[in-house]
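During the second year of the project, the team shifted from modelling isolated chains to modelling whole assemblies. The rationale, set out in the original proposal, was that interfaces cannot be judged from single-chain predictions alone. As a representative example for this report, we include one of the complexes processed in the last quarter. Its constituent sequences, exactly as entered into the pipeline, are reproduced here:
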Amino acid sequence: MPFDNVTITDNRTNRTYTLPIEHGTVRSADFRNIRTDPADFGLMTYDPAFVNTASCRSSITYLDGERGILEYRGYPIETLAEHCSFLEVAYLLVFGELPDRTELQDWASEITRRTMLHENIRKFMEGFRYDAHPMGMLVSSVAALSTLYPDAKHVQDPANRLQQIKRLIAKIPTIAAMCYRHGVGFPYVFPDNDLSYTENFMNMLWKMAEPKYAANAVLARALEVLFILHADHEQNCSTNAMRSVGSSQADPYLSLSAAAAALSGPLHGGANEQVLRMLEEIGSKDRIPAYLDRVKSGEVKLMGFGHRVYKNYDPRAKIIKWTAEQVFRVTGRNPKLDIALELERIALEDEYFIERKLYPNVDFYSGIIYQAMGFKPEFFTVLFAIPRTAGWLAQWDEMHRDPEQKIARPRQIYTGERQRAFLAIEERQAIAAAKG
Ligand code: ACO
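Output from the structure prediction step:
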């Protein structure tokens, strides 16, 4: 029977240390006991970009990147995408269990009655330029909610946290839809509380003069599936931002706007926008090999490919491919799909991608569906942020319940100068003048 510990010999002192192993992990703080003398600070671990550091314990999302497995609270993503509504999944993420019928009805009604926005937010959003990027609008507007709900600062009160969780899950589609309508120059549409979460979102996006918006059932379900797939993904860049900012006890609106800002980057949730731009640039199947040559020479990245954790096919990408077929039956086939399928086929047979275990990720196909539904690429990341709000908030709540968590504060390896002699500005000026 192997021991659950590791023995380390410090060759500087010839001393040995035994560190406990739990969940295949050693505590970095245990390394602090490894020191050359009592004045020594102790050994630190260096992990830029957190490639091998667990920052928390979590029971929300399980991800096995080698086998391509994704589960929320123990349920496979494929099962949830097939059988659940987005609000059911949001409940699962927040409370840890799937709701029964009464719980789901209560939860849906708690969310639905909070979908309206304060008029000040509408006025605030009107101030954006006509061509403002929707992610910039979303990030700022979510942060602005903080000014309307000062009670949200009581982050250590679980009941208060739940109140803010409901508000944010309810209001994020309304803000997102306003970003969209602002961009196309249409008046904002009020939420319709008779509709489901995704139908109401479609209503706020696309209602024109008709008295009641009727959502296409296939598109509403496709959006629901896409929302489920994007709802959480354990400790990614934006979730880490949510936890990190939240760890200072900042309120959830400010923390979530930081998370959304992290999501907007092209290496994270902004990749779906970049995939579309890349497919536009490639233009036709015969130009794929030349584009892949540019990828392999390091000139560009193949957007929508590769993942820090998945070293196998992203299970979400498989479901998205299936969803695309459903959507195209309504909207007509997006010709970019053929380029994307061919690009994937060639890439997956290429030594460069095989060697590095680079597979399509969630962003590779989602944009093609969104474009077929009528969204412009700059809006794709907003469509990611809506469902991820549930995940960010579940993670934020879990962090506040965890007695081991404190303010997130990494160490550094200082590489700069020390103890320099100060020169008065006259002396610096004289030196500069002498140098010419
Ligand atoms: N195209 C070409 N080469 C790639 C790609 C890519 N998309 N992704 C990784 N590689 C290469 C790297 O250059 C590196 O090669 P090397 O070993 O010769 O230096 C090797 O594969 C390992 O990649 P890393 O950059 O070390 O992987 P990391 O875990 O740091 O990055 C990331 C992950 C950011 C997702 C990366 O794969 C990437 O930039 N992909 C494109 C952007 C993208 O699709 N992002 C969305 C991710 S999913 C999401 O956030 C929702």
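The chain has three domains: 5-46, 79-265, 271-372. The longest helix spans residues 158-184.
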